[in-house]
Specification:
It is a single chain. By secondary structure, this protein is mostly helical. The protein has 5 helices and 2 strands. It folds into 2 domains: 2-42, no CATH class; 55-116, no CATH class. 47% of the residues lie in helices and 7% in strands.
Length: 120
């Protein structure tokens, strides 16, 4: 899926737990949506909606994300503090250490960080 979107001119990476993160300027939202739809149609077995995680899954994910936070900080990035486990279980999309990184980071830099500090 990422290669298909890249071939259409859009940076993309697999999101933790399923799905795809796409990066594009606001004025390209319509084109990005069309590219995503075209790529989805070329991968009929691709499920953009991950299964619903259990509470235990979410607590384990938060623990892994906190490890990623420590790794990013060791690389010199400032990362916001994580929520409590109970808050994260209630709203799992509320925090991810990669959300603290600069918005417009070169994809090669982000890819290198993903190698050093993998996203769970």
């Amino acid at each position: 899926m990422e290669a298909c979107l890249a071939a259409k001119g859009f940076a993309a990476e697999a999101a933790p737990g399923g799905g795809i993160y796409m990066s594009y300027p606001n004025d390209q939202e319509e084109a990005a949506t069309a590219a995503r739809q075209a790529c989805l149609e070329s991968f009929p077995d691709y499920d953009p909606e991950p299964p619903v995680p259990t509470e235990a899954d979410l607590r384990a994910l938060l623990s892994a994300l906190i490890e990623t936070k420590s790794c990013l900080e060791a690389q010199g990035f400032e990362v916001s503090d994580p929520p409590t486990a109970d808050a994260f279980v209630q709203n799992p999309g509320m925090w991810h250490p990669y959300m603290s990184l600069p918005e417009f980071m070169p994809m090669e830099t982000r890819n290198k960080l993903n190698e050093i500090c993998p996203q769970p």
